[in-house]
Design brief:
By secondary structure, this protein is mainly alpha-helical. The protein has one domain (2-192). 81% of the residues lie in helices and 0% in strands. The protein contains five helices and no strands. The protein is flat and about 70 Å long. The chain starts with a helix and ends with a helix.
Length: 193
């Protein structure tokens, strides 16, 4: 199973990078057409208006509804593809790590079970902190059903850190400190046994 995930990741990483590069080039040309840096009557402009612009219409609607300019739609599409690719690679890497941990736990008996439980507990806590950061960026309600778990798990860790670590202007660095602190404590606990 690990080999399959490694092969998928080995193909996915360069594939998504290539897709991002191609989309960046397409977005650049489409942006030039939309902002009239290229002649709107040329072949390239006609080609992009007939082939690329219809594909970008749903993204353009979202950008305009959010208060952006329609000319930003190509860049929003690139950002969406890049972020989705990063999340996909991270999810597959996480899955690979968990499969490796389960296999190692099976081979090492009680010590392996201890290491597995410690790793999973700290991974869940780090995911909760990461979700808190993402949810603060997009202004989701902390008491909504889909975000409540992240607040309940991360607040006991973040609250004491906020009392010690001052805000840097509008930036709260306590999640970064908590992330590194959790990694350190996890390493210490894993070395105990």
């Amino acid at each position: 199973m690990l080999e399959i995930i490694d092969v998928v990741l080995g193909v996915l990483r360069p594939g998504l990078l290539g897709l991002a590069v191609v989309l960046s080039a397409v977005a650049t040309v489409d942006w030039m057409v939309r902002t009239r840096r290229l002649s709107p009557f040329g072949r390239v402009a006609r080609l992009f208006r007939t082939t690329v612009d219809p594909l970008l219409m749903p993204i353009e609607r979202v950008v305009v509804r959010a208060g952006g300019l329609p000319t930003s739609a190509p860049w929003a599409a690139v950002v969406f593809v890049v972020v989705t690719g990063i999340l996909l690679i991270a999810a597959l890497g996480f899955l690979r790590e968990q499969v490796a941990l389960v296999l190692a736990a099976i081979n090492h008996g009680p010590q392996g079970l201890y290491r597995l439980v410690v790793s999973w507990v700290f991974a869940i806590l780090q995911i909760a902190i990461f979700m808190r950061v993402i949810m603060s960026w997009i202004h989701l309600r902390p008491n909504a059903w889909y975000s409540r778990w992240a607040y309940k798990l991360s607040e006991p860790i973040l609250r004491p850190l906020r009392n010690v670590i001052p805000m840097m202007g509008p930036l709260d660095v306590s999640p970064i400190a908590a992330f590194f602190l959790l990694g350190f404590v996890e390493t210490v606990l894993l070395r105990l046994w």
